[in-house]
């Protein structure tokens, strides 16, 4: 299996090189040359445990780049940190099925991919006898999942910037209570956008980047997509037995299009999914695109589902590339339009595409609160606000004929304020979050200034 860039500017590369590259060096996103087709193996895949299925699917993307036993070890380690024996248990709630992706160490779905990516980084660095300094900015969930992915690992340091006092208490403590020597939390006196600006400036400083082996861990890394494809197969194969058509509908709350792109990739590989329902909050650039063919930026609005408060979906370019039939010239044109005007228009391509597997819609904070309350009162089930966005849209777009699976992307205890607002009681708790209250923390508070951050990193490496 080889990888190429959506912008057409790199030679084909192997899996590990694609992982270490992160974003393609020509500014595009990395995609596989083909999607492996497993449609004739579904019965066999349906019998596997989660780690076995992960091995079966991920090895197709790794090819012969990592010996089988090594890959198996990496995958087994990655899912041994999950607290539920099924890794991603599926619960039946009302008319829906809910797949809980939040049983990893930081209680959000990002652990599914970042536990794997952390182990993969450690393995590759050791093999090549090099080191890596990961640099990232977070508005909340990604930072802690990335930190838990690489804490204590050899040859890796991680520096995560978060906006001082602008992340939730739980999110802050999940990051700053990690005291491993290779973890550096930096609270900048500014906003999340300041953090992103600083990170971008440091990555653009090629001398600094080269001398200090800087790496990213953001949601465009292909290894994250590969790891996420697994649970689409897992869920669809578990539920298809109860479906009269043999197909399943999936509903995914989304912001960066990272999670749901993995769902799209799974459909290209033959997963029995009839419909991908894309759910956004009021930051609805993706929902607007699927309903109009126009992808256009507007201002970010703060909502009760902050991990989806995103205006530019970093994985969207991957889907666009396949939508224009892998036509690199057309893709470059469209992305140039978007960079210049904050807008791109694909005409009727999506509206007239009867094969399009997506249905998209957005919900607002009132819908979120209503769903949390309804599912708690009717089914005694607590939805986190991101999952609630998905469930609200799923209820509106379900076909009664097929089982519907909603992805639950965070444990409700991570967003206990929203739960309290919805049902008037403070009942969203989790042992691992309660335990954080008593732990010591470490964090540098620095001004939101590129030179200050650069000096700090140079001093610590
Ligand atoms: C990151 C995140 C999302 C959005 O995922 P995308 O891959 O950006 O679509 C949704 N819910 C939670 C809880 C998250 O942490």
**CATH-scheme architecture of the domain at 90-104 and 224-432:** 3-Layer(aba) Sandwich
CATH hierarchy class name of the domain at 90-104 and 224-432: Alpha Beta
* Oligomeric form: single chain
Strand order of the largest sheet: 3-4-14-9-10-13
Radius of gyration: 21 Å
CATH topology of the domain at 90-104 and 224-432: Rossmann fold
Small molecules held by this entry:
pyridoxal-5'-phosphate
The beta-strand count equals: 15
Helix count equals: 19
Q: Return the structural class.
A: alpha/beta
Shape: globular
Note the main sheet.
6 strands, mixed
Helix content: 40-55%
Measure the end-to-end span.
35 Å
Content of β-strand? 15-25%
Task: Name its key features.
single chain; 461 residues; alpha/beta; 6-stranded mixed sheet; 19 helices; 45% helix; binds pyridoxal-5'-phosphate
Please describe what this structure looks like.
This protein has 19 helices and 15 strands. Helix 5 runs parallel beside helix 6 and helix 15 packs across helix 16. It has a domain at 90-104 and 224-432: Rossmann fold. It has 461 residues and is an alpha/beta fold. It has a 6-stranded mixed beta sheet. The protein has helices at 15-21, 42-45, 50-62, 68-80, 110-128, 141-150, 169-176, 192-204, 206-211, 222-239, 258-269, 285-292, 316-323, 328-341, 365-379, 385-397, 416-423, 431-436, 450-460; strands at residues 3-5, 30-32, 90-93, 96-100, 132-137, 156-163, 183-189, 214-215, 248-253, 273-280, 294-296, 343-345, 358-362, 404-408, 444-447. The longest helix is centred in the N-terminal third of the chain and has 19 residues, at 110-128. Pyridoxal-5'-phosphate (PLP) is lined by residues 108, 110, 141, 219, 253-259, 307-308, 386, 409-410.
